[in-house]
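Q: Predict the assembly, please.
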Amino acid sequence: MSLSHDQVQRLALLARIAVGPGETDAVLAQLNRVLELIEQMQKVDTRGVEPMAHALDLRQRVREDSVTERDQHALFQSVAPAVERGLYLVPKVIE
Amino acid sequence: MSWEIVVGIETHAQLRTRSKIFSGASTEFGAAPNTQASAVDIALPGVLPVLNRAAVELALRFGLAIGARINRRSVFARKNYFYPDLPKGYQISQYEAPIVQGGTLAIALAEGEKTIRITRAHLEEDAGKSLHEDFHGMSGIDLNRAGTPLLEIVSEPDLRGAHEAVAYARALHALVRWIGVCDGNMQEGSFRCDANVSVRRAGEPLGTRCEIKNLNSFRFIERAIEFEARRQIALLEDGGRVEQQTRLYDPERDETRAMRSKEEAQDYRYFPDPDLLPLVVSEEEIERVRAELPELPDVRRRQFIARGIPATQAAQLTSSIELATYAGLALEGASRGTAPAIANWITGPLSAKLNERGIGIERAPVSPEQLRQLVERIADGTISGKLAKEVDDAMWAGEGSADEIIERRGLRQISDSDAIEKLVDEVLAANAKLVEDYRGGKEKAFNALVGQVMKASRGKANPAQVNQLLRVRLAG
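A: Predicted assembly structure:
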Protein backbone atom coordinates (compact mmCIF):
# COMPACT_ATOMS: atom_id res chain seq x y z
CA MET A 1 0.00 0.00 0.00
CA SER A 2 1.26 3.47 -0.74
CA LEU A 3 -0.19 6.87 -0.06
CA SER A 4 -1.27 9.57 -2.48
CA HIS A 5 -0.42 13.26 -2.22
CA ASP A 6 -4.03 13.98 -1.26
CA GLN A 7 -3.90 11.49 1.58
CA VAL A 8 -0.75 13.09 2.92
CA GLN A 9 -2.42 16.49 2.87
CA ARG A 10 -5.47 15.09 4.65
CA LEU A 11 -3.32 13.44 7.34
CA ALA A 12 -1.45 16.70 7.80
CA LEU A 13 -4.74 18.51 8.27
CA LEU A 14 -6.04 15.98 10.78
CA ALA A 15 -2.78 16.19 12.73
CA ARG A 16 -2.69 20.00 12.38
CA ILE A 17 0.81 19.85 10.94
CA ALA A 18 1.68 22.32 8.20
CA VAL A 19 3.14 20.33 5.32
CA GLY A 20 3.96 22.76 2.53
CA PRO A 21 3.61 21.77 -1.14
CA GLY A 22 7.38 21.46 -1.40
CA GLU A 23 7.49 19.02 1.52
CA THR A 24 4.77 16.62 0.43
CA ASP A 25 7.09 14.40 -1.61
CA ALA A 26 9.54 13.96 1.25
CA VAL A 27 6.78 13.26 3.81
CA LEU A 28 5.11 10.87 1.37
CA ALA A 29 8.31 8.88 0.95
CA GLN A 30 8.87 8.66 4.70
CA LEU A 31 5.29 7.61 5.43
CA ASN A 32 5.43 5.00 2.70
CA ARG A 33 8.50 3.47 4.34
CA VAL A 34 6.57 3.23 7.60
CA LEU A 35 3.70 1.57 5.77
CA GLU A 36 6.09 -0.91 4.15
CA LEU A 37 7.29 -1.91 7.58
CA ILE A 38 3.69 -2.38 8.71
CA GLU A 39 2.98 -4.42 5.60
CA GLN A 40 5.90 -6.64 6.45
CA MET A 41 4.61 -7.13 9.99
CA GLN A 42 1.14 -7.91 8.71
CA LYS A 43 2.54 -10.94 6.88
CA VAL A 44 3.03 -12.66 10.23
CA ASP A 45 0.36 -15.28 10.85
CA THR A 46 -1.56 -14.03 13.93
CA ARG A 47 -4.48 -16.42 13.74
CA GLY A 48 -5.55 -17.39 17.25
CA VAL A 49 -3.57 -14.56 18.85
CA GLU A 50 -5.68 -12.17 20.91
CA PRO A 51 -4.98 -8.53 19.96
CA MET A 52 -3.13 -6.61 22.66
CA ALA A 53 -4.44 -3.33 24.02
CA HIS A 54 -1.18 -2.63 25.82
CA ALA A 55 2.45 -3.72 25.70
CA LEU A 56 2.39 -4.60 29.41
CA ASP A 57 0.48 -7.63 30.56
CA LEU A 58 -0.90 -5.85 33.62
CA ARG A 59 -4.26 -4.51 34.68
CA GLN A 60 -5.27 -0.92 35.35
CA ARG A 61 -4.92 0.24 38.96
CA VAL A 62 -7.63 2.48 40.36
CA ARG A 63 -7.55 5.29 42.92
CA GLU A 64 -10.12 6.11 45.59
CA ASP A 65 -12.69 8.77 44.70
CA SER A 66 -11.43 11.69 46.75
CA VAL A 67 -10.51 15.27 45.92
CA THR A 68 -6.75 15.58 46.28
CA GLU A 69 -6.01 18.49 43.95
CA ARG A 70 -6.18 22.10 45.06
CA ASP A 71 -6.74 25.16 42.93
CA GLN A 72 -3.53 26.10 41.10
CA HIS A 73 -5.03 28.06 38.23
CA ALA A 74 -3.00 31.21 38.96
CA LEU A 75 0.22 29.19 38.67
CA PHE A 76 -0.92 27.34 35.53
CA GLN A 77 -2.13 30.54 33.90
CA SER A 78 1.12 32.36 34.54
CA VAL A 79 2.49 30.75 31.36
CA ALA A 80 -0.69 31.12 29.26
CA PRO A 81 -0.48 33.63 26.41
CA ALA A 82 -3.83 35.26 27.19
CA VAL A 83 -6.08 35.05 30.22
CA GLU A 84 -9.12 37.00 31.36
CA ARG A 85 -11.43 36.54 34.35
CA GLY A 86 -9.86 33.17 35.01
CA LEU A 87 -10.47 31.96 31.45
CA TYR A 88 -7.85 30.97 28.90
CA LEU A 89 -8.34 33.07 25.78
CA VAL A 90 -7.95 31.47 22.35
CA PRO A 91 -8.65 32.59 18.81
CA LYS A 92 -12.40 32.58 18.27
CA VAL A 93 -13.87 29.18 17.44
CA ILE A 94 -17.53 28.80 16.64
CA GLU A 95 -19.01 25.51 15.53
CA MET B 1 -48.33 4.59 2.67
CA SER B 2 -47.39 6.28 5.92
CA TRP B 3 -43.92 7.10 7.16
CA GLU B 4 -42.26 5.49 10.11
CA ILE B 5 -39.98 7.65 12.24
CA VAL B 6 -36.98 5.73 13.60
CA VAL B 7 -34.98 7.09 16.52
CA GLY B 8 -31.92 5.97 18.45
CA ILE B 9 -30.63 7.98 21.40
CA GLU B 10 -27.14 8.57 22.77
CA THR B 11 -27.06 9.92 26.28
CA HIS B 12 -24.18 11.44 28.19
CA ALA B 13 -24.83 10.92 31.88
CA GLN B 14 -22.40 12.55 34.26
CA LEU B 15 -21.39 10.02 36.89
CA ARG B 16 -21.85 11.03 40.52
CA THR B 17 -18.29 11.06 41.72
CA ARG B 18 -16.54 13.57 43.96
CA SER B 19 -13.42 13.73 41.81
CA LYS B 20 -12.68 13.47 38.12
CA ILE B 21 -12.29 10.25 36.20
CA PHE B 22 -8.52 10.52 35.80
CA SER B 23 -7.48 13.18 38.35
CA GLY B 24 -8.11 14.21 41.94
CA ALA B 25 -9.75 17.53 40.98
CA SER B 26 -13.27 18.23 42.23
CA THR B 27 -16.28 17.75 39.94
CA GLU B 28 -18.50 20.15 41.88
CA PHE B 29 -20.67 22.33 39.63
CA GLY B 30 -20.44 26.11 39.59
CA ALA B 31 -16.86 26.78 40.71
CA ALA B 32 -14.98 29.84 39.41
CA PRO B 33 -13.40 29.16 35.98
CA ASN B 34 -10.40 26.82 35.92
CA THR B 35 -10.18 26.50 39.71
CA GLN B 36 -11.00 22.78 39.39
CA ALA B 37 -8.73 22.04 36.44
CA SER B 38 -5.65 20.17 37.63
CA ALA B 39 -2.40 19.53 35.78
CA VAL B 40 -3.87 16.29 34.40
CA ASP B 41 -7.09 17.99 33.28
CA ILE B 42 -5.23 20.73 31.40
CA ALA B 43 -2.78 18.19 29.93
CA LEU B 44 0.52 19.55 31.19
CA PRO B 45 3.45 17.53 29.82
CA GLY B 46 4.49 14.48 31.80
CA VAL B 47 1.25 13.90 33.67
CA LEU B 48 -0.53 10.54 33.66
CA PRO B 49 -4.19 9.60 34.18
CA VAL B 50 -5.15 7.45 37.17
CA LEU B 51 -8.58 5.86 37.00
CA ASN B 52 -11.25 6.66 39.60
CA ARG B 53 -12.66 3.51 41.24
CA ALA B 54 -16.09 5.09 41.79
CA ALA B 55 -16.54 5.84 38.07
CA VAL B 56 -16.01 2.14 37.32
CA GLU B 57 -18.43 1.04 40.04
CA LEU B 58 -21.14 3.43 38.87
CA ALA B 59 -20.78 2.13 35.30
CA LEU B 60 -21.08 -1.42 36.63
CA ARG B 61 -24.16 -0.47 38.64
CA PHE B 62 -25.82 0.88 35.50
CA GLY B 63 -24.85 -2.19 33.47
CA LEU B 64 -26.30 -4.54 36.07
CA ALA B 65 -29.49 -2.47 36.36
CA ILE B 66 -30.21 -2.88 32.63
CA GLY B 67 -29.26 -6.56 32.59
CA ALA B 68 -26.26 -5.93 30.33
CA ARG B 69 -23.15 -7.97 29.78
CA ILE B 70 -20.25 -6.58 31.80
CA ASN B 71 -17.02 -6.87 29.86
CA ARG B 72 -14.56 -8.32 32.34
CA ARG B 73 -11.83 -6.61 30.37
CA SER B 74 -12.43 -3.23 28.75
CA VAL B 75 -10.03 -0.86 27.04
CA PHE B 76 -9.60 2.91 27.09
CA ALA B 77 -8.98 4.48 23.71
CA ARG B 78 -8.00 7.90 22.45
CA LYS B 79 -10.51 9.72 20.29
CA ASN B 80 -8.42 12.27 18.44
CA TYR B 81 -9.65 15.70 17.40
CA PHE B 82 -8.61 19.28 17.89
CA TYR B 83 -10.69 21.79 19.77
CA PRO B 84 -9.54 24.39 22.31
CA ASP B 85 -11.65 22.94 25.14
CA LEU B 86 -9.95 19.55 24.68
CA PRO B 87 -6.46 20.20 26.04
CA LYS B 88 -4.84 16.85 25.19
CA GLY B 89 -6.00 16.86 21.56
CA TYR B 90 -7.84 13.63 22.32
CA GLN B 91 -10.63 12.49 24.55
CA ILE B 92 -10.12 9.34 26.59
CA SER B 93 -13.08 7.10 25.80
CA GLN B 94 -13.80 3.43 25.19
CA TYR B 95 -14.20 2.16 21.67
CA GLU B 96 -13.83 -1.51 20.79
CA ALA B 97 -14.28 -2.92 24.25
CA PRO B 98 -16.75 -0.83 26.32
CA ILE B 99 -17.39 -1.79 29.93
CA VAL B 100 -21.13 -2.37 29.37
CA GLN B 101 -22.60 -4.15 26.36
CA GLY B 102 -26.23 -4.97 25.58
CA GLY B 103 -29.04 -4.78 28.07
CA THR B 104 -32.56 -3.39 27.84
CA LEU B 105 -34.74 -0.64 29.22
CA ALA B 106 -38.54 -0.98 29.46
CA ILE B 107 -40.57 2.11 28.66
CA ALA B 108 -44.20 2.63 29.67
CA LEU B 109 -46.53 3.72 26.89
CA ALA B 110 -50.29 4.17 27.07
CA GLU B 111 -50.64 1.07 24.86
CA GLY B 112 -48.37 -0.99 27.09
CA GLU B 113 -44.76 -1.68 27.89
CA LYS B 114 -42.06 -1.68 25.22
CA THR B 115 -38.53 -2.99 25.58
CA ILE B 116 -35.75 -0.89 24.12
CA ARG B 117 -32.38 -2.51 23.48
CA ILE B 118 -29.26 -0.76 24.71
CA THR B 119 -26.25 -1.20 22.44
CA ARG B 120 -23.54 -0.25 24.90
CA ALA B 121 -22.49 2.09 27.67
CA HIS B 122 -18.92 3.25 27.93
CA LEU B 123 -16.79 5.37 30.22
CA GLU B 124 -15.26 8.59 28.97
CA GLU B 125 -14.16 12.02 30.07
CA ASP B 126 -15.99 15.26 29.38
CA ALA B 127 -14.38 18.21 27.58
CA GLY B 128 -14.15 21.78 28.90
CA LYS B 129 -16.43 24.64 28.04
CA SER B 130 -15.94 27.31 25.37
CA LEU B 131 -17.48 30.71 25.96
CA HIS B 132 -17.97 32.71 22.81
CA GLU B 133 -19.14 35.95 24.41
CA ASP B 134 -17.24 39.15 24.24
CA PHE B 135 -13.56 38.57 24.79
CA HIS B 136 -12.32 41.09 22.21
CA GLY B 137 -12.99 38.67 19.39
CA MET B 138 -11.51 35.71 21.26
CA SER B 139 -13.11 32.69 22.94
CA GLY B 140 -12.79 32.00 26.66
CA ILE B 141 -11.97 28.48 27.83
CA ASP B 142 -13.02 27.04 31.20
CA LEU B 143 -11.56 23.60 31.83
CA ASN B 144 -13.37 22.83 35.10
CA ARG B 145 -15.57 20.31 33.29
CA ALA B 146 -12.62 18.68 31.49
CA GLY B 147 -12.11 15.19 32.86
CA THR B 148 -15.55 14.89 34.46
CA PRO B 149 -16.60 11.23 34.26
CA LEU B 150 -19.35 10.42 31.78
CA LEU B 151 -21.22 7.28 30.90
CA GLU B 152 -22.27 7.39 27.27
CA ILE B 153 -25.35 5.21 26.88
CA VAL B 154 -26.28 4.25 23.32
CA SER B 155 -29.68 2.79 22.40
CA GLU B 156 -30.51 0.70 19.36
CA PRO B 157 -32.78 2.42 16.80
CA ASP B 158 -35.79 0.79 18.48
CA LEU B 159 -37.76 3.96 19.12
CA ARG B 160 -40.63 4.92 16.82
CA GLY B 161 -41.40 8.61 16.84
CA ALA B 162 -40.80 11.51 19.22
CA HIS B 163 -43.27 10.17 21.76
CA GLU B 164 -41.35 6.93 22.33
CA ALA B 165 -38.03 8.77 22.30
CA VAL B 166 -39.21 11.01 25.12
CA ALA B 167 -40.59 8.03 27.06
CA TYR B 168 -37.16 6.39 26.71
CA ALA B 169 -35.28 9.51 27.80
CA ARG B 170 -37.57 9.86 30.81
CA ALA B 171 -37.21 6.20 31.77
CA LEU B 172 -33.42 6.38 31.46
CA HIS B 173 -33.35 9.64 33.43
CA ALA B 174 -35.46 8.05 36.15
CA LEU B 175 -33.24 4.94 36.24
CA VAL B 176 -29.86 6.71 36.51
CA ARG B 177 -31.19 8.86 39.35
CA TRP B 178 -32.91 5.91 41.00
CA ILE B 179 -29.73 3.87 41.20
CA GLY B 180 -27.69 6.95 42.10
CA VAL B 181 -25.24 6.93 39.19
CA CYS B 182 -26.17 10.45 37.95
CA ASP B 183 -27.92 13.43 39.55
CA GLY B 184 -29.92 13.95 36.34
CA ASN B 185 -29.64 17.72 36.49
CA MET B 186 -30.37 18.69 32.90
CA GLN B 187 -29.89 22.44 33.39
CA GLU B 188 -26.35 21.81 34.59
CA GLY B 189 -25.71 19.42 31.69
CA SER B 190 -25.50 16.26 33.82
CA PHE B 191 -27.85 14.41 31.43
CA ARG B 192 -27.68 15.32 27.73
CA CYS B 193 -29.16 13.49 24.76
CA ASP B 194 -28.31 13.27 21.07
CA ALA B 195 -31.05 11.86 18.83
CA ASN B 196 -30.39 9.91 15.63
CA VAL B 197 -33.44 10.37 13.44
CA SER B 198 -34.38 8.73 10.13
CA VAL B 199 -37.64 8.01 8.32
CA ARG B 200 -38.76 5.13 6.12
CA ARG B 201 -41.85 3.61 4.59
CA ALA B 202 -43.13 0.76 6.73
CA GLY B 203 -41.19 -2.43 6.06
CA GLU B 204 -38.33 -0.77 4.22
CA PRO B 205 -34.70 -0.80 5.41
CA LEU B 206 -33.50 2.05 7.62
CA GLY B 207 -33.24 5.44 5.97
CA THR B 208 -30.28 7.83 6.15
CA ARG B 209 -30.07 9.37 9.59
CA CYS B 210 -29.27 12.79 10.93
CA GLU B 211 -27.90 13.31 14.41
CA ILE B 212 -29.35 16.14 16.49
CA LYS B 213 -26.84 17.15 19.15
CA ASN B 214 -27.12 18.26 22.75
CA LEU B 215 -30.80 18.14 23.60
CA ASN B 216 -31.02 19.11 27.24
CA SER B 217 -34.74 18.94 27.98
CA PHE B 218 -37.48 16.40 27.30
CA ARG B 219 -39.48 19.04 25.47
CA PHE B 220 -36.59 19.82 23.15
CA ILE B 221 -36.11 16.11 22.42
CA GLU B 222 -39.74 15.85 21.39
CA ARG B 223 -39.85 19.01 19.29
CA ALA B 224 -36.47 18.49 17.64
CA ILE B 225 -37.43 14.97 16.52
CA GLU B 226 -40.83 16.11 15.30
CA PHE B 227 -39.30 18.91 13.27
CA GLU B 228 -36.49 16.74 11.89
CA ALA B 229 -38.89 13.97 10.83
CA ARG B 230 -41.14 16.47 9.04
CA ARG B 231 -38.10 17.93 7.29
CA GLN B 232 -36.88 14.53 6.09
CA ILE B 233 -40.33 13.42 4.96
CA ALA B 234 -40.86 16.65 2.99
CA LEU B 235 -37.45 16.21 1.40
CA LEU B 236 -38.16 12.61 0.34
CA GLU B 237 -41.67 13.36 -0.88
CA ASP B 238 -40.21 16.06 -3.11
CA GLY B 239 -37.97 13.44 -4.66
CA GLY B 240 -34.87 14.57 -2.79
CA ARG B 241 -32.65 12.58 -0.48
CA VAL B 242 -31.53 12.93 3.11
CA GLU B 243 -27.89 13.72 3.61
CA GLN B 244 -26.24 12.22 6.67
CA GLN B 245 -25.23 15.14 8.87
CA THR B 246 -25.04 16.53 12.35
CA ARG B 247 -27.68 19.11 13.20
CA LEU B 248 -28.45 21.45 16.05
CA TYR B 249 -31.89 22.20 17.45
CA ASP B 250 -32.74 25.88 17.86
CA PRO B 251 -35.50 26.13 20.48
CA GLU B 252 -36.27 29.75 19.65
CA ARG B 253 -37.11 29.00 16.03
CA ASP B 254 -38.21 25.43 16.77
CA GLU B 255 -36.14 23.96 13.95
CA THR B 256 -32.99 21.93 13.37
CA ARG B 257 -30.10 23.31 11.34
CA ALA B 258 -27.07 21.65 9.88
CA MET B 259 -23.92 22.46 11.83
CA ARG B 260 -21.54 24.33 9.61
CA SER B 261 -20.33 21.45 7.51
CA LYS B 262 -16.69 20.71 8.03
CA GLU B 263 -14.59 20.86 4.92
CA GLU B 264 -13.31 17.43 5.89
CA ALA B 265 -15.31 14.61 7.42
CA GLN B 266 -14.15 13.78 10.96
CA ASP B 267 -11.75 10.93 11.43
CA TYR B 268 -11.12 10.27 15.09
CA ARG B 269 -8.31 7.72 14.59
CA TYR B 270 -9.19 5.74 17.72
CA PHE B 271 -6.43 3.66 19.23
CA PRO B 272 -5.84 2.10 22.68
CA ASP B 273 -4.46 4.70 25.10
CA PRO B 274 -0.92 3.64 26.03
CA ASP B 275 -1.23 5.65 29.27
CA LEU B 276 -3.91 3.30 30.57
CA LEU B 277 -3.83 -0.44 31.01
CA PRO B 278 -6.84 -2.60 30.23
CA LEU B 279 -9.55 -2.32 32.91
CA VAL B 280 -10.25 -5.71 34.46
CA VAL B 281 -13.26 -6.19 36.75
CA SER B 282 -13.52 -9.26 38.93
CA GLU B 283 -16.53 -11.42 39.71
CA GLU B 284 -16.35 -10.30 43.35
CA GLU B 285 -16.57 -6.65 42.36
CA ILE B 286 -19.54 -7.31 40.13
CA GLU B 287 -21.32 -9.28 42.83
CA ARG B 288 -20.63 -6.61 45.43
CA VAL B 289 -22.12 -3.92 43.19
CA ARG B 290 -25.08 -6.16 42.35
CA ALA B 291 -25.81 -6.67 46.06
CA GLU B 292 -25.95 -2.90 46.58
CA LEU B 293 -28.55 -2.33 43.84
CA PRO B 294 -31.92 -1.10 45.13
CA GLU B 295 -35.18 -2.60 43.86
CA LEU B 296 -35.49 -1.22 40.34
CA PRO B 297 -38.17 1.17 39.02
CA ASP B 298 -39.46 -1.48 36.58
CA VAL B 299 -40.34 -3.75 39.47
CA ARG B 300 -42.02 -0.96 41.39
CA ARG B 301 -43.89 0.20 38.30
CA ARG B 302 -45.32 -3.26 37.70
CA GLN B 303 -46.35 -3.46 41.35
CA PHE B 304 -48.28 -0.21 40.96
CA ILE B 305 -49.91 -1.45 37.75
CA ALA B 306 -50.97 -4.61 39.59
CA ARG B 307 -52.78 -2.36 42.09
CA GLY B 308 -54.96 -1.03 39.28
CA ILE B 309 -52.96 2.12 38.48
CA PRO B 310 -52.71 2.96 34.75
CA ALA B 311 -49.27 2.28 33.15
CA THR B 312 -48.32 5.86 32.31
CA GLN B 313 -49.31 7.05 35.77
CA ALA B 314 -47.32 4.19 37.30
CA ALA B 315 -44.34 5.42 35.24
CA GLN B 316 -44.89 8.90 36.62
CA LEU B 317 -44.92 7.56 40.19
CA THR B 318 -41.61 5.77 39.55
CA SER B 319 -39.87 8.79 38.02
CA SER B 320 -37.87 9.09 41.24
CA ILE B 321 -37.15 6.77 44.14
CA GLU B 322 -38.47 9.40 46.58
CA LEU B 323 -41.82 9.67 44.80
CA ALA B 324 -42.13 5.89 44.45
CA THR B 325 -41.34 5.42 48.13
CA TYR B 326 -44.02 7.96 49.05
CA ALA B 327 -46.56 6.32 46.74
CA GLY B 328 -45.65 2.88 48.08
CA LEU B 329 -46.30 3.99 51.66
CA ALA B 330 -49.54 5.77 50.73
CA LEU B 331 -50.79 2.64 48.99
CA GLU B 332 -49.87 0.36 51.86
CA GLY B 333 -52.99 -1.33 53.16
CA ALA B 334 -55.25 0.64 50.82
CA SER B 335 -58.04 -1.32 49.18
CA ARG B 336 -57.72 -2.08 45.47
CA GLY B 337 -60.61 0.27 44.86
CA THR B 338 -58.90 3.28 46.40
CA ALA B 339 -55.41 2.67 45.00
CA PRO B 340 -56.08 4.56 41.72
CA ALA B 341 -57.66 7.43 43.68
CA ILE B 342 -54.57 7.62 45.89
CA ALA B 343 -52.35 7.66 42.79
CA ASN B 344 -54.54 10.42 41.33
CA TRP B 345 -54.22 12.48 44.46
CA ILE B 346 -50.41 12.11 44.42
CA THR B 347 -49.94 12.98 40.74
CA GLY B 348 -52.70 15.61 40.92
CA PRO B 349 -53.25 17.91 43.92
CA LEU B 350 -50.13 16.83 45.86
CA SER B 351 -47.70 17.27 42.93
CA ALA B 352 -49.33 20.57 41.98
CA LYS B 353 -48.90 21.94 45.50
CA LEU B 354 -45.30 20.70 45.74
CA ASN B 355 -44.49 22.34 42.40
CA GLU B 356 -46.16 25.57 43.43
CA ARG B 357 -44.07 25.74 46.56
CA GLY B 358 -40.95 24.38 44.85
CA ILE B 359 -40.37 21.59 47.37
CA GLY B 360 -39.52 17.95 46.84
CA ILE B 361 -41.78 15.04 47.80
CA GLU B 362 -39.43 14.06 50.63
CA ARG B 363 -40.35 17.35 52.33
CA ALA B 364 -44.10 17.15 51.73
CA PRO B 365 -45.92 18.32 54.89
CA VAL B 366 -48.64 15.71 54.33
CA SER B 367 -47.41 12.22 55.18
CA PRO B 368 -48.30 9.23 52.95
CA GLU B 369 -50.49 7.87 55.75
CA GLN B 370 -52.36 11.19 56.07
CA LEU B 371 -52.90 11.30 52.31
CA ARG B 372 -54.25 7.76 52.28
CA GLN B 373 -56.70 8.58 55.07
CA LEU B 374 -57.95 11.65 53.19
CA VAL B 375 -58.61 9.67 50.02
CA GLU B 376 -60.29 6.91 52.02
CA ARG B 377 -62.63 9.46 53.63
CA ILE B 378 -63.70 10.59 50.17
CA ALA B 379 -64.13 6.99 49.04
CA ASP B 380 -66.19 5.96 52.06
CA GLY B 381 -68.43 9.01 51.78
CA THR B 382 -67.33 10.70 55.03
CA ILE B 383 -66.53 13.90 53.14
CA SER B 384 -67.38 15.22 49.71
CA GLY B 385 -64.66 15.74 47.10
CA LYS B 386 -65.17 19.46 47.44
CA LEU B 387 -64.57 19.51 51.17
CA ALA B 388 -61.58 17.23 50.73
CA LYS B 389 -59.71 20.26 49.36
CA GLU B 390 -60.44 22.12 52.56
CA VAL B 391 -59.20 19.17 54.61
CA ASP B 392 -56.08 18.97 52.43
CA ASP B 393 -55.34 22.67 52.92
CA ALA B 394 -55.70 22.20 56.66
CA MET B 395 -53.33 19.20 56.59
CA TRP B 396 -50.79 21.32 54.69
CA ALA B 397 -51.19 23.95 57.40
CA GLY B 398 -50.23 21.32 59.95
CA GLU B 399 -53.64 20.95 61.60
CA GLY B 400 -53.34 17.20 61.96
CA SER B 401 -54.81 14.16 60.27
CA ALA B 402 -57.83 14.12 57.97
CA ASP B 403 -60.02 12.51 60.66
CA GLU B 404 -59.03 15.11 63.25
CA ILE B 405 -59.74 17.97 60.88
CA ILE B 406 -63.09 16.53 59.74
CA GLU B 407 -64.22 16.18 63.36
CA ARG B 408 -62.91 19.52 64.56
CA ARG B 409 -64.40 21.44 61.66
CA GLY B 410 -67.58 19.42 61.45
CA LEU B 411 -67.10 18.56 57.80
CA ARG B 412 -68.61 15.11 57.92
CA GLN B 413 -70.84 14.57 54.92
CA ILE B 414 -74.53 14.41 55.63
CA SER B 415 -75.77 11.09 54.29
CA ASP B 416 -78.65 10.76 56.72
CA SER B 417 -81.68 10.81 54.39
CA ASP B 418 -83.99 12.39 56.97
CA ALA B 419 -81.64 15.33 57.35
CA ILE B 420 -81.27 15.70 53.59
CA GLU B 421 -85.00 15.45 53.07
CA LYS B 422 -85.49 18.28 55.51
CA LEU B 423 -82.97 20.43 53.68
CA VAL B 424 -84.55 19.66 50.30
CA ASP B 425 -88.02 20.53 51.52
CA GLU B 426 -86.81 23.81 52.95
CA VAL B 427 -85.08 24.75 49.72
CA LEU B 428 -88.12 23.80 47.60
CA ALA B 429 -90.38 25.89 49.80
CA ALA B 430 -88.08 28.89 49.61
CA ASN B 431 -87.49 28.72 45.83
CA ALA B 432 -90.91 28.50 44.24
CA LYS B 433 -89.67 30.32 41.15
CA LEU B 434 -86.96 27.76 40.44
CA VAL B 435 -89.40 24.90 40.97
CA GLU B 436 -91.77 26.52 38.47
CA ASP B 437 -88.95 27.02 35.97
CA TYR B 438 -87.91 23.39 36.28
CA ARG B 439 -91.42 22.13 35.80
CA GLY B 440 -91.64 24.44 32.80
CA GLY B 441 -88.77 22.50 31.23
CA LYS B 442 -85.69 24.45 32.33
CA GLU B 443 -83.15 21.80 33.30
CA LYS B 444 -80.80 24.53 34.51
CA ALA B 445 -83.18 25.27 37.34
CA PHE B 446 -82.52 21.78 38.68
CA ASN B 447 -78.80 22.45 39.04
CA ALA B 448 -79.59 25.73 40.78
CA LEU B 449 -81.76 23.83 43.28
CA VAL B 450 -78.97 21.29 43.92
CA GLY B 451 -76.66 24.23 44.53
CA GLN B 452 -79.11 25.73 47.02
CA VAL B 453 -79.36 22.48 48.98
CA MET B 454 -75.58 22.09 49.04
CA LYS B 455 -75.27 25.67 50.22
CA ALA B 456 -77.86 25.11 52.93
CA SER B 457 -75.83 22.11 54.12
CA ARG B 458 -72.60 24.14 53.96
CA GLY B 459 -71.29 21.74 51.36
CA LYS B 460 -71.74 18.69 53.54
CA ALA B 461 -74.80 17.03 52.00
CA ASN B 462 -74.07 13.94 49.92
CA PRO B 463 -74.54 15.31 46.37
CA ALA B 464 -75.75 12.02 44.92
CA GLN B 465 -78.44 11.74 47.54
CA VAL B 466 -79.44 15.39 47.08
CA ASN B 467 -79.82 14.80 43.34
CA GLN B 468 -81.90 11.72 43.83
CA LEU B 469 -84.20 13.23 46.45
CA LEU B 470 -84.76 16.38 44.45
CA ARG B 471 -85.80 14.36 41.41
CA VAL B 472 -88.25 12.40 43.48
CA ARG B 473 -89.72 15.47 45.09
CA LEU B 474 -89.98 17.44 41.85
CA ALA B 475 -91.56 14.55 40.00
CA GLY B 476 -94.17 14.17 42.76
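The two ends of chain B are 62 Å apart (CA to CA). Chain B has three domains: 3-289, 295-409, 417-475.
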